[in-house]
Amino acid sequence: MYTNNDLMNIPDPEAHPVTAGGDASGPAVGGLSKAEQYEAMRKKQKEELQKKIKNTGNFRMYLWRIQNSFIASEQDFMNNVKENFILFLPKDIVSGDFYWAGKLANGNFAMVNADSTGHGVPGAIMSILNVSSIEKAVENDVTSPANIFNQTR
Q: Which long-range contacts (CB under 8 A, 24 or more apart) does 60-66 make?
């Protein structure tokens, strides 16, 4: 898993400039040599890439907060299962993995541990949709696990 700090330390491209004209020491254009023009262009591209990576990281963290708001809380388990623990270690910041827990209309406590199709952001979106579908089935007083999953798909 990468953090924003890891992504901000992008290594420089190859040390020697590559230019369309071949030689990096060509004639100056606008007071800058080809090597200086290349270096300015490279710095600008690096800054743009770092900004895009940072924005992507921010988006993933925001999606992580949304996804976490959909999964069962520790309190749900503590209130219904005396001895329990939660081990949730998705591969990425967001993923298709999720767990859900809640009381059914018949008073039984149900738990779901699942992996939605997809990885990363697409998987996270699928997991949010799946949790919402499970909750809707439970709200409609469906109590059979098979029927809950049939209504979910």
A: 60/92, 60/93, 60/94, 60/120, 60/121, 61/93, 63/93, 63/94, 63/121, 63/124, 64/93, 64/94, 64/124, 66/128
Task: Return the structure tokens found at 132.
Answer: 């919402």
Query: Mean of the pLDDT values across residues 53-72?
Result: 80
Euclidean distance between CA atoms 51 and 15, whole angstroms: 22
- Distance CA(130)–CA(29), nearest Å, equals 58
pTM of the model: 0.59
What does the block give as tokens for 69? 């708001």
Q: What is the CA radius of gyration of the chain?
A: 25
Task: Give phi and psi for 101, each to the nearest 5.
Answer: -150, 145
Mean pLDDT of 85-99: 83
Widest CA span in the chain: 82
